[in-house]
From TrEMBL:
<dbReference type="InterPro" id="IPR029044">
    <property type="entry name" value="Nucleotide-diphossugar_trans"/>
</dbReference>
<dbReference type="Pfam" id="PF00535">
    <property type="entry name" value="Glycos_transf_2"/>
</dbReference>
<keyword id="KW-0808">Transferase</keyword>
<feature type="domain" description="Glycosyltransferase 2-like">
    <location>
        <begin position="45"/>
        <end position="212"/>
    </location>
</feature>
<comment type="similarity">
    <text>Belongs to the glycosyltransferase 2 family.</text>
</comment>
<protein>
    <submittedName>
        <fullName>Glycosyltransferase, catalytic subunit of cellulose synthase and poly-beta-1,6-N-acetylglucosamine synthase</fullName>
    </submittedName>
</protein>
<dbReference type="InterPro" id="IPR001173">
    <property type="entry name" value="Glyco_trans_2-like"/>
</dbReference>
<feature type="transmembrane region" description="Helical">
    <location>
        <begin position="283"/>
        <end position="305"/>
    </location>
</feature>
<keyword id="KW-0472">Membrane</keyword>
<keyword id="KW-1133">Transmembrane helix</keyword>
<feature type="transmembrane region" description="Helical">
    <location>
        <begin position="311"/>
        <end position="329"/>
    </location>
</feature>
<feature type="transmembrane region" description="Helical">
    <location>
        <begin position="341"/>
        <end position="363"/>
    </location>
</feature>
<keyword id="KW-0812">Transmembrane</keyword>
<keyword id="KW-0328">Glycosyltransferase</keyword>
<feature type="transmembrane region" description="Helical">
    <location>
        <begin position="6"/>
        <end position="31"/>
    </location>
</feature>
<dbReference type="GO" id="GO:0016757">
    <property type="term" value="F:glycosyltransferase activity"/>
</dbReference>
Amino acid sequence: MTIPSILFYAFFAVTGIQIAYYLSFLFSFSITRAETQLKKHIPISVIICAKNEAENLKKNIPLILNQDYSNFEIVLVNDSSFDDTLETMKAFDAENNNIKLVDVKTNEAFWGNKKYALTLGIKASKHDFLVFTDADCTPNSEQWLAQISSHFSNDKSIVLGYGAYAKKKFSFLNKLIRFETVMTALQYFSYAKMGTPYMGVGRNMAYRKELFFNNCGFNNHMSIKSGDDDLFINEVAKASNTSLCFTTDSFTISEPKTSFKAWILQKRRHISTANFYKLKHQFLLGLFYITNLLFWILGISLLIIGFSWPWIIALIGLRFVIQWLCFGFTAKKFKETDLIILMPILELFLITTQLSIFIANLISKPKHWK
């Protein structure tokens, strides 16, 4: 058997795995409609851990205070900031009786570890139902808290939400960031819908304090700088205790990075936690990425040498049609339709960037969350 033939059969297998993955894991969620639950207005504690975020707090805390919700507190956690974050928090605390301030001093044992600061914030909260977001996150509506909290029940103690990034005109990096965000959301919502949740995003998620302390909080991965959201969810989430909230009113909108250097550093921190996921999630996510990478490498190689090009074009076309359907329906759900036509280009750039990040992380690990 010739080398081109081997490459062709490998490409056929890789494309088959990709198509099967999209049809079995991702298509079901992509066509699922968001449902608005009955608003319950249970007592909620909103936890915001901030490090050097004075300006973002000034912008977003008033929007959270203005939520159409009858019973909630905001726990502001200052994680050893050296800007005006603490002063900004004190100003809000002085003017609002539903704000609680937690000032975390530098701790040598937990230096640069957001999980330590978050744990102190969770301990300080007075309600059992906790909603988490970041200082740079803007609620998409005054119904954000009502939408997220409505998904709690006697059985559901975790709520996974969607954290979008703001659109910036004439920025390829912005489109790449938003594409990666939609693809990540498509995966973690799809896995959760199929009964095997593996992550959430700290920009917009919720869980019960009781669940946190019954599972010893972040103790099992406190030494890992990242993962206050995905590693904890990977550890405790099950089909029976996890609910999904992706109505438009429930989104949060964050400010994206504006330079490739800053974004890559952020992704290096995020990707470094994947090695600590459950083995089944590592296998499935790894299989998807590897076959995605090989799809591009083998497909381009076979087209260049011209081996069985009608078959190659047909397989590429079939895979892209299925991917476009999954991504397109999801992008429409998340109000990111401008990304649909650019999907192949964005995907190629994303998997190339992810490969470089993986190689960089083998050499050295990011040490701080900020």
